[in-house]
Amino acid sequence: MQAEQEALEALVDPWRARMPGVTALVVWHKRFHRGVLDVAREVGADLIVKQAETTSRLAEVVRTPDDWHLLREAGSAVLLVKSGLWLEQPPLLAAVD
Predict the structure, then answer these.
(1) Confidence band (pLDDT; 50, 70, 90) for 36?
(2) Which range (18-32, 54-68, 74-88) has the least confidence?
(3) Do the beta carbons of residue 70 and residue 50 sit within 8 Å?
(4) Which of 18, 20, 38, 91 is packed most tightly, with the most Cβ within 10 A?
(5) How far apart, in whole angstroms, are the C-alpha atoms of residue 28 and residue 41?
(6) Is the dihedral of CA 22, 26, 30, 32 positive or negative?
(7) What is the CA 13 to chain-centroid distance, rounded?
């Protein structure tokens, strides 16, 4: 896990000058979503950001079980992001709590 922490620190370092207080943490847990939720609660996170990977057209509608667990159980906002380009301009929906 030390190698993963060092790699993460290298990714985060350029952002620290513009956003003081940014921290990087590598955690291992049997269940991905449970590890994320535990750490988010521990640090008082306001937002959880997770890459949403899709492998098929059906997967664009039905997300992974981890995505669903995060959306249902998180005590803060969850933002699922897509790493690739959009094929077409999608309609957007915003919900403000």
Answers:
(1) very high
(2) 54-68
(3) yes
(4) 38
(5) 16
(6) positive
(7) 18
